[in-house]
Amino acid sequence: MHQATGSAHVAIKHPCLENAASRALMATMTELERLAFLEQQAEQSYDAMYEAHSASHAAACFSEVKEALYTAINIAHRIQPESVKRLEARLAHIKAVFRSQFT
């Protein structure tokens, strides 16, 4: 999105969307560090969902939550199976919250 005033174009960064810096950082992490990072990203996007200024912004944040938790669940299956149920339960809770409050 760009600001449409005059000839200046100012990019507006979406606070929920993963950026290149996050991807680069994740590439240097161990699987365990990546798992923790993804959980943290999911929680930050969940918090941002509540601060969303529109339904589409809330949906974008929800999409980021799901992507981070699905990836975390896949990693947990490989390296920390005891975390899978907890992560799946968190995802189910967030889905229920989104459906009840934002749709």
Strand-helix topology:
Blueprint: H1 20-27, H2 31-50, H3 55-79, H4 84-101
Helix pairs in contact: 2-3, 3-4
Number of self-contained structural domains: 1
The helical percent reads 55-70%
Provide the structure class.
mainly alpha
Point out poorly predicted stretches: 1-13
The average pLDDT is 84
This entry's quaternary arrangement is single chain
Spatial shape: flat
Q: What percentage of amino acids are in beta strands?
A: under 5%
H-E order: HHHH
- Count of DSSP H/I helices: 4
Description:
The structure is a single chain. The protein is mostly helical and 103 residues long. It has one domain (20-101). Helix content is 69%, strand content 0%. It contains 4 helices and no strands. It has helices spanning 20-27, 31-50, 55-79, 84-101. Helix 2 runs antiparallel to helix 3 (55-79) and helix 3 (55-79) runs antiparallel to helix 4 (84-101). The radius of gyration is 16 Å and the shape is flat. It starts with 19 loop residues before the first helix and ends with a helix. The relative contact order is 0.13. Residues 1-13 have low confidence and may be disordered.
